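To the team - NAP complex, inputs and output below.
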Amino acid sequence: MASLLSGRELAGTIRSRVALEAGALPGRPVCLAVVTAADDPASAVYVASKRKACEKAGMKSVGIDLPAEVSQDGYLDAVRSLNDDPTVDAIICQLPLPPGIDPHAVASTVLPSKDVDGFHPENVGRLWRGEDGIFPCTPLGVMRLLEAYGLEIGGRRAVIVGRSNIVGKPMAALLLRSDATVTLAHSKTPDLPGLCRTADILVTAVGRPGVIGRGHVHEGAVVVDVGISRDGDVLRGDVDFEAVEPVCSHITPVPGGVGPLTIAILLENALRLRKAADARKAATP
Ligand code: NAP
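Output:
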């Protein structure tokens, strides 16, 4: 029987530490700004929980709600207004973006010094170059989970299913930085089950319930399910948990696995941005 990799407890520990450190900072509270535009009920739920978590950690959250039909210029102007606002430490541009808004333009417009999601090309470059920076919350949460459970990463074979800029690619970079041998798979990968069976660590971020079954997992593998799909009120991961759990050594539940860590790391990233801004200010004559 596999051990469950529970993100809830670890997320609680991270959030308490962040709240303590944020509360000890001099001056105004850490401020996280969220730009929303798409008319998307699921993302409205995520935004509400991010803002609530922020307030629970003693941080301030502000929002700019744009109409779903906002132009690209209008959207980028809203981002620039937050860049220029000295009372804002961190900016989230909530996904999905409305149709017609270029995600690359959005990611490049958020100042790297306020880029809490780690999507700016400067932070992406730092991640791949092995430099310090702000990195995407969900893959960073996966790394924390693996580390918290003392799971070996260096020298292991890792397969990641999904190649998005927000999960799959940064996940690959982080595992590589920790000396795993990494393969990134996607919808065009031939013989996905055979490739996945080579993995000591299998991370899946697809968004299709049951896409990973018994035939994708070798005995004793560590299985991390990032996928979240809504089935009515029920949340489902990518992994057929009942089929896979008996053969792997460790597995994340959905919900309660990676999900809680995403918000905890978001708060941690916001705190890091604020501390870095304070340090820059203190160093300015
Ligand atoms: P995305 O941008 O839609 O990317 C999905 C990836 O899955 C793509 O690379 C796609 O391949 C690949 N894919 C689709 N069908 C496949 C198949 N049958 N076999 C192999 N690969 C397949 O999604 P995302 O933003 O990365 O999110 C992925 C999942 O993670 C979603 O369920 C999302 O809700 C969840 N998520 C969870 C958290 C959390 O906090 N737990 C955070 C973020 C995202 P192509 O590139 O070839 O199309």
